[in-house]
Amino acid sequence: MYTRPFAAAIVLCLAACAPPPDQNARVDPQIALEISRIKAIDNHAHPVRPGDPPDTEYDALPVESLEAQSDPVRTRQGSPELINAHRQIFRGDKARAQKAYGVDYANRVLDQLNIETMLANRVALGPGLAPPRFLWVPFADALMYPLPTDSLAHNSDQKAFFALEDKVRNRYWTESGVTSKPATLDEYLDKIVRPTLERHKAGGAVAEKFEMAYLRTLEVGNPLKADAEKVYATGTGDYKILQDYIFRFIAIECGRLGMAIHIHSNAGAGGYFNVAGANPMLLEPLFDDPYLRKTKFVMLHGGWPFEHQLTALLTKPNVYLDFSAQTFTNYPREVSHAIRAWLEYVPEKVLYATDAYPFAPPDAGWEEAGWIANVTGREALGIALTGMVRDNEISRERAVELARMVLRENARKLYGLK
Ligand SMILES: [Zn+2]
């Protein structure tokens, strides 16, 4: 045991001799530590059900149906980050972990990422993906297409996607107990659209997801009902008028039912993806519609490459965003620029998310995508907050508070979670 003066000298020496905090570190070590400790709510992901039979419900429009494209560097097979992520998840042995954990496997994946709750954007949840760790976000696009869609497919990717939407549409019609097209648009809305949304809500859904940007542009008009009815009844004319009318009906119903609307608002997968048509600025008329103010909209993926324009949209009272997907296509520094701009403007509307997705299992599964997005997202958040502290915009305490808001509190409030 040390004598008291000696111990005091050691304490003094420790204080004096300790290296100063690294002023050049990309992320302030204390902020990094706090960020690493926060159990996150992941606003958007596609977890896969463990075990057999193989899960095909992790997306309404799986990306494996796409023609080959030039993949972003970070996501390419054999990229060092992908290999590292694979080594990190269950020490590189997912197969053994799946066997050992069985139905608890997906929960254990969340534990590895320090994610408490993951919003699972899937056609259905199922065994091994249960609340409260996984909350359901089903798909609503198929409801926008009550008529045949052959005339809407202009390339092989869209052809594959509309065929997949037909499957979801058939599912919703069957679940609604309807076998043939209802006679009028009102009947269609009453017998299929509203009941499907109500079933989703009763099944625990917290939001409805639109993958609209893969099928058409995000520009949604405000057509007259009579014009939409005419297209529905005759099966001719401008199909978009009918889609737009139904979209607005769904958005109003979601507001009534207390479900948010999630919209893919970013560049997307595939060499035919219409990037300009996915510009979230096209959504502004919806955000400004007084009839839709009770509906909360979340722009998924943070709008890259339009991410800075989204900053201005955050002032709409019912509009939020998350930064999923950017966090495995882009590097932390790039993502941090967007996060910082948003946090400097309306920090209450910014949500952490991964978009963990099974791109090419087994080496690039939802686990690896989740790992990369989680590490990148937390680091990007740390870089943004560190910059704000160093520029005297906020205190260190406020930085930690903002980290908690982004990683969990903002989502908790948005979805009314405990
Ligand atoms: Zn997604």
Description:
- The chain has 418 residues and is of the alpha/beta class.
- It has a single domain (47-415), classed as TIM Barrel.
- Helices cover 45% and strands 9% of the residues.
- The chain has 15 helices and eight strands.
- It has helices at 4-17, 29-37, 80-88, 94-101, 105-113, 156-175, 185-202, 225-234, 239-257, 284-287, 307-313, 326-329, 332-343, 366-390, 396-415; strands at 40-45, 115-121, 134-137, 207-210, 260-264, 297-300, 319-322, 350-351.
- It has a five-stranded parallel beta sheet, with helices on both faces.
- α11 links the parallel β6 and β7.
- α14 (366-390) packs across α15 (396-415).
- The model is unreliable at 1-18 (pLDDT under 50).
- Residues 44, 46, 121, 355, 357 line the site of zinc ion.
- The site of zinc ion has 5 residues, from loops.
Features:
418 residues; alpha/beta; TIM Barrel; 5-stranded parallel beta sheet; 3-stranded parallel beta sheet; 15 helices; 45% helix; globular; binds zinc ion
Brief synopsis:
The protein has 418 residues and is α/β, with parallel strands linked by helices. It has 15 helices and 8 strands.
